[in-house]
């Protein structure tokens, strides 16, 4: 009761003032910095408007040995491998952030940058999908890459390209890439309809490929097993892709797929306490709950209600109001695992944010075992997690590089830890990089602005050391859900009904890069 009384002023403001934007942290600045991080992760030929100027062209021969152009895309984290599964999830979550909160991004002048970040990924996926049933899912391999500590511009490591096809399937990889292409097609529907159509065509083909030729991608691309093993299998990605294809196309086939396969593929069965690049069930359940609240379920309503029950179980577990709750640190941070825990913080907080708005738009409360919970509590949870990672924590540390006055200085990241090739073009050798740069106790010579590192342990402790990869390595999929939450917290709700068809209507030309 005491906790409810303490929260009441915030809940009252949220309920009475839908345009309310949170004060305290500068969410707009954090959003701008978060988007800069994606430019630091770019592979390929960098554009003339590249804002992270210590980076240069890299990976320019990618795919050549296999007779395919795989130049471009993103390095996922602190190494120089292009891993397809987390890259696709990153693009899906960036797209979802724009679909829900593009208006707020536009108001802060960041929509153009966000759309450019999505397109950098989808341009690569188009190249990586040269035939209907062929998808390249990795360039380089973690073993040889991790043996070396080199900036991407100096890479001497193996750049072998790995693919999935009918003989060596990868339903999880193809399904997630289909989801990314479908979600991105919504982002570009108004500003670039031809491109949006091209993305949707790839998404259709990739879904059919994933569904027809079933198999886990890491059984085909075995070099990925040590780094991005698909623990959850591929059923969650097939449902996830179907949900995004329905949202992008309004094609009844994909809604029927969700209704027909919800029980057998685990969509209505799994009660989750995590959401991330591997396990998509909570995301699927949230999207299907949205379709249900939009009145689109038709005769699938009983099945979709079971999806929604699982979505709400996830939300309640994040709030600590379920029979099985997520773990939190003494300082209040959602905690799943020691290695890059922050990915689960931002992904769960994003789902809480959008579901809060879905509920508010439908005029209903969250149903937990402890009773009904107003939607504002979900948004308050997301705010508490974002505020923690921006510095409101027992260490008073910002886990976003470049935000605040106390942030990680020795990030586990090859590019940021080695002097820029533009400052000193002298070649950095494979092992020489470890001796000279990795082992250095000095701060990074290049500021990896906006990077969200792995974060603290279960007791809120953190060691700012370059070899502490579990805590100091950043990742693109940490930032992707975060941009949506930051846009929502900084820009408010704007009286926008989250259940009405939402399309980004701001044309890139109207949002020039600043």
UniProtKB/TrEMBL annotation:
Catalytic activity entry: Endohydrolysis of (1->4)-beta-D-glucosidic linkages in cellulose, lichenin and cereal beta-D-glucans
Taxonomically, the superkingdom here is Eukaryota
Q: Where is the active site?
A: 412, 464, 473
One GO BP on record is:
cellulose catabolic process
Q: What class of enzyme is it?
A: hydrolase
Q: Which UniProt keywords apply?
A: Carbohydrate metabolism, Cellulose degradation, Glycosidase, Hydrolase, Polysaccharide degradation, Signal
User: What's one GO MF term for it?
Assistant: cellulase activity
Q: Which Pfam families match?
A: Glyco_hydro_9 (PF00759)
Keyword Signal attributed: yes
Q: Which residues, if any, are the signal sequence?
A: 1-23
Residue ranges spanning the membrane: these are: none
Q: What is its EC number?
A: 3.2.1.4
Q: Does the keyword Metal-binding apply?
A: no
- Which positions fall inside the Glycoside hydrolase family domain? 27-486
Q: Member of which family? A: Belongs to the glycosyl hydrolase 9 (cellulase E) family.
Protein name (Swiss-Prot/TrEMBL) = Endoglucanase
Native organism: Glycine soja
Q: What is the lineage of its organism?
A: Eukaryota, Viridiplantae, Streptophyta, Embryophyta, Tracheophyta
């Amino acid at each position: 009761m005491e906790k409810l009384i303490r929260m009441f002023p915030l809940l009252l403001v949220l309920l009475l003032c839908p345009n309310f934007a949170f004060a305290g942290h500068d969410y707009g600045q954090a959003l701008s910095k978060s988007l800069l991080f994606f430019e630091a992760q770019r592979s390929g030929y960098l554009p003339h408007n590249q804002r992270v100027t210590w980076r240069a062209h890299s990976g320019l021969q990618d795919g050549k040995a296999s007779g395919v152009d795989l130049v471009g895309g993103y390095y996922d984290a602190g190494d120089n491998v292009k891993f397809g599964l987390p890259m696709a999830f990153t693009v899906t979550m960036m797209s979802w952030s724009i679909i829900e909160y593009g208006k707020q991004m536009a108001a802060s002048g960041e929509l153009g940058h966000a759309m450019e970040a999505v397109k950098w990924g989808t341009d690569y996926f188009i190249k990586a999908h040269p035939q209907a049933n062929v998808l390249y899912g990795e360039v380089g391999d973690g073993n040889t890459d991790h043996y070396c500590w080199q900036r991407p511009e100096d890479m001497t490591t193996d750049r072998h390209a790995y693919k999935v096809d009918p003989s060596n399937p990868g339903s999880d990889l193809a399904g997630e890439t289909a989801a990314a292409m479908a979600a991105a097609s919504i982002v570009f529907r108004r500003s670039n309809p031809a491109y949006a159509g091209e993305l949707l065509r790839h998404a259709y083909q990739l879904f059919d490929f994933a569904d027809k030729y079933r198999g886990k991608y890491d059984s085909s691309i075995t070099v990925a097993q040590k780094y991005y093993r698909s623990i959850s299998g591929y059923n969650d990605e097939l449902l996830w892709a179907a949900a995004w294809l329905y949202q992008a196309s309004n094609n009844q086939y994909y809604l029927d797929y969700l209704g027909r396969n919800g029980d057998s593929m685990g969509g209505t069965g799994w009660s989750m306490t995590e959401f991330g690049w591997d396990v998509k069930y909570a995301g699927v359940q949230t999207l299907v709950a949205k379709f249900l609240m939009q009145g689109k379920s038709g005769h699938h309503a009983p099945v979709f209600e079971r999806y929604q029950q699982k979505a709400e179980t996830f939300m309640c577990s994040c709030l600590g109001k379920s029979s099985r709750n997520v773990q939190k640190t003494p300082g209040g941070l959602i905690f799943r695992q020691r290695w890059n825990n922050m990915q689960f913080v931002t992904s769960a907080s994003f789902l809480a944010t959008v579901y809060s708005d879905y509920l508010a738009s439908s005029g209903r409360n969250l149903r937990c075992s402890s009773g009904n919970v107003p939607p504002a509590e979900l948004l308050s949870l997301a705010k508490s997690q974002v505020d923690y990672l921006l510095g409101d924590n027992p260490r008073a540390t910002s886990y976003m590089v470049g935000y605040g006055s106390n942030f990680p200085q020795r990030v586990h990241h090859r590019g940021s830890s080695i002097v820029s090739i533009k400052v000193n073009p002298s070649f950095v050798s494979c092992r020489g990089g470890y001796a000279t740069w990795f082992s250095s106790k000095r701060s990074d010579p290049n500021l990896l602005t906006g990077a969200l590192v792995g974060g603290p342990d279960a007791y809120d402790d953190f060691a700012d050391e370059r070899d502490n990869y579990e805590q100091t390595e950043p990742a693109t999929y940490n930032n992707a859900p975060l941009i949506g939450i930051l846009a929502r917290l900084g820009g408010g709700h704007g009286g926008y009904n989250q259940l009405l068809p939402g399309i980004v209507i701001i044309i890139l030309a109207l949002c020039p890069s600043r």
